C-alpha cells in the first residue's frame, strides 16, 4: 500500500521503494502486478467510506485482492479485505509511513523515481 498511496499522493512517477525497516529496495519487478487496477469505490463494499475523501478500490490483475483506500491530502487510510486489516499513513517529502493495525507496527519507505 505504501507504493500505491505514495504514487497517488505525491503525484510522481514512482518506480521503486526503499524499505527502511528491511534495508532494501523494492524495484519495479517486485512491485509490478501487485495492485494494478484502480477504480472508484465499489457500491457493494461493506467498508464505511468517508464522503470527504478520495475513495478508491484497488484490485490485483485477477480481481481477487480488494483493498479500500481513502486519501486525505497527505494522509491515507484503508482496509485490506484479504487480511481483514486496517491501515493508516502519511506521505511527506518523499517518505511514506504506514501503520498496520493487524501487525501493530509502523513501516517506513522512501519513494524512488
Brief synopsis:
The chain has 113 residues and is mainly β. The protein has helices at residues 2-10, 28-31, and strands at residues 16-19, 24-26, 37-40, 54-59, 66-72, 75-80, 85-92, 95-100, 105-112. Strand 6 and strand 7 form a beta hairpin.
Characterization of the model:
The chain is mainly β and 113 residues long. The protein is 12% helix and 46% strand. It is built from 2 helices and 9 strands; from the N terminus they run H-E-E-H-E-E-E-E-E-E-E. It has a 9-stranded antiparallel beta sheet. The longest helix has 9 residues. The radius of gyration is 13 Å and the shape is globular. The chain starts with a helix and ends with a strand.
Taking the sheet with the most strands, its summary is: 9 strands, antiparallel
Number of helices: 2
Strand % is over 45%
Radius of gyration: 13 Å
Distance between the termini: 17 Å
Number of E-state strands: 9
Unreliable spans: none
Give the class from helix and strand content and strand pairing: mainly beta
How would you spell out the order of helices and strands? Answer: HEEHEEEEEEE
Q: Let me know the average pLDDT.
A: 81
Estimate the helix proportion, in percent: 10-25%
Shape: globular
- How are the strands ordered across the major sheet? 2-1-9-8-7-6-5-4-3
